[in-house]
Design goal:
CATH topology of the largest domain: Fructose-1,6-Bisphosphatase, Chain A, domain 1
Number of strands: 14
Number of helices: 7
Strand order of the largest sheet: 3-4-5-6-7-8-9
Helix content: 25-40%
Number of domains: 2
CATH architecture of the largest domain: 2-Layer Sandwich
Order of helices and strands: HEEHEHEHEEEEEEHEHEHEE
Distance between the termini: 34 Å
CATH class of the largest domain: Alpha Beta
Largest sheet: 7 strands, mixed
CATH superfamily of the largest domain: Fructose-1,6-Bisphosphatase, subunit A, domain 1
Structural class: alpha+beta
Radius of gyration: 17 Å
Length: 264
């Protein structure tokens, strides 16, 4: 019977922080060297520099898991379809925010096992805040200070549900309609994986998304939300899965509480 991999989450946190410090060097010098990919999404020299740090440092650890990164090689599904465990990395999530001088960008490192994330690290370089989770629980740490355990409630305040949304993608009318049916009273736009962090720490209750993003955008955040006690479900109300033939995510919803049965 397969055994879940056992990793040193603190080592992964250290790698995320190291990559984040490199991002800050570019950010503070305003030395971004922006290019555009075939899909017209931006990529900067900072993305590549952070990716080099993360992949290089992970390869030094005593793990043989393959790495799938936004800024890495394009790995066909035929090669990765049998991967049981792998790293899923976004070295700079929120490149648009980064380019605009908006502080809400992150480093995301997730570990996927049998199609589902089991550990994750999200680092906010400007604020020096870490969110991370593994088999020992989910935590927040500010500037290397005391660990704050993240533990979400079973049920939210149904009369005052708070949602977060992407700051760079306009909500479609049908997305607003879903939130209206859920009785959401407040919607906060925010960039990058900060949305998942807000759900995991309880400062927001729902993150619903129809517009596509990528697997490396969501894996670390899903791990942190789920281990905090929340849920991430697909359009069929099943746990959101990874390593699909297409790495483009479909519709999903994140709940910052354990029992979503009264809403779905």
């Amino acid at each position: 019977m397969p055994v879940k991999p056992n990793i040193n989450i603190q080592a992964i946190c250290s790698i995320a922080v190291q990559a984040g410090k490199k991002l800050l060097e570019f950010y503070r010098k305003n030395d971004l060297q922006v290019q555009y990919k075939e899909d017209n999404s931006p990529v900067s020299a900072a993305d590549y520099a952070a990716n080099k740090i993360i992949t290089g440092e992970i390869e030094k650890l005593a793990y043989s898991f393959p790495i799938l990164s936004e800024e890495g090689a394009d790995i066909p599904y035929e090669v990765r379809k049998d991967w049981e465990t792998f790293w899923l990395i976004d070295p700079l999530d929120g490149t648009k925010e980064f380019i605009k001088g908006n502080d809400n960008f992150t480093v995301n490192i997730g570990l996927v096992y049998q199609s589902f994330p089991i550990a994750g690290v999200i680092y906010l370089p400007v604020n020096d805040v870490l969110y991370f989770a593994d088999k020992n629980g989910a935590f927040k740490q500010i500037a290397s200070g005391e660990l704050i355990r993240l533990q979400l409630p079973q049920e939210p305040d149904y009369q005052n549900l708070r949602a977060v949304k992407s700051s760079s993608n306009a909500y479609r009318p049908e997305e607003y309609e879903v939130l209206k049916k859920l009785n959401v009273k407040q919607i906060t736009p925010i960039g990058s994986a900060v949305k998942y962090c807000m759900i995991a720490e309880g400062s927001a209750d729902i993150y619903y998304r129809q517009s596509p993003n990528m697997e490396w955008d969501s894996a670390a955040g899903q791990a942190i939300i789920e281990i905090s006690g929340g849920k991430v479900l697909d359009a069929n109300k099943q746990r959101f899965a990874y390593n699909k033939p297409s790495l483009i995510n479909g519709e999903f919803i994140c709940y910052g509480f354990g029992d979503s049965s009264k809403l779905i």
